[in-house]
């Protein structure tokens, strides 16, 4: 998983970088096929904003959060992304049961006579 952190009107400190990477490991625990993540952190007056885009096979997932503290905004963001990843994973899971449908079952000709 490639991680790209960007700060607008904000310096991305090693503590923020470590916090974001530790939170995003929860997402990679749910879904292994995350290609890359782009996280943008910005400060506008009293609002701390965090936006992230996850690139997964077949889709791009985007979430944005705003809070008065950057760490709480990152927590809310990872919660949103986690729910989106789980929903994406369930959508693309193979729901077909092998040989469970009637059309895939073998017919015993001895029972018909």
CATH C-level name: Alpha Beta
Mean pLDDT: 84
- Work out the helicity level: 25-40%
Topology as a string of helices (H) and strands (E): EHEEEHH
**Number of beta-strand segments:** 4
The main sheet comes to:
4 strands, mixed
**Span from first to last CA?**
60 Å
Unreliable stretches:
none
CATH superfamily: Ribosome hibernation promotion factor-like
Work out the strand percent. Answer: 25-35%
Q: Please list the strands of the largest sheet in the order they lie side by side.
A: 1-2-3-4
Round the Cα radius of gyration to an integer and report it: 21 Å
Taken from the alpha-carbon principal axes, the silhouette is rod-shaped
Reported CATH architecture = 2-Layer Sandwich
Instruction: Give the count of structural domains.
Output: 1
Number of helices: 3
CATH topology: Double Stranded RNA Binding Domain
The helix/strand class is: alpha+beta
Overview of the structural elements:
This protein has 113 residues and is an alpha+beta fold. It is 38% helix and 31% strand. It has helices spanning 14-30, 70-91, 109-112; strands at 2-8, 36-44, 47-56, 59-67. It is rod-shaped and about 80 Å long.
Q: Which secondary structure elements does this structure contain, and how are they paired or packed?
A:
Layout: E1 2-8, H1 14-30, E2 36-44, E3 47-56, E4 59-67, H2 70-91, H3 109-112
């Amino acid at each position: 998983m490639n991680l790209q952190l960007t700060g607008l009107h904000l310096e991305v400190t090693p503590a923020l970088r470590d916090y974001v990477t530790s939170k995003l490991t929860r997402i990679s625990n749910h879904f292994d096929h995350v290609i890359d993540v782009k996280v943008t952190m910005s400060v506008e007056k009293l609002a701390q904003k965090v936006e992230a885009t996850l690139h997964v096979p077949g889709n791009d997932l985007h979430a944005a959060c705003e809070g008065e503290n950057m760490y709480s905004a990152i927590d809310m963001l990872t919660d949103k992304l986690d729910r989106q990843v789980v929903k994406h994973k369930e959508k693309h899971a193979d729901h077909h049961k092998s040989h469970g449908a009637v059309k895939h079952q073998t017919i015993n000709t001895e029972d018909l006579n």
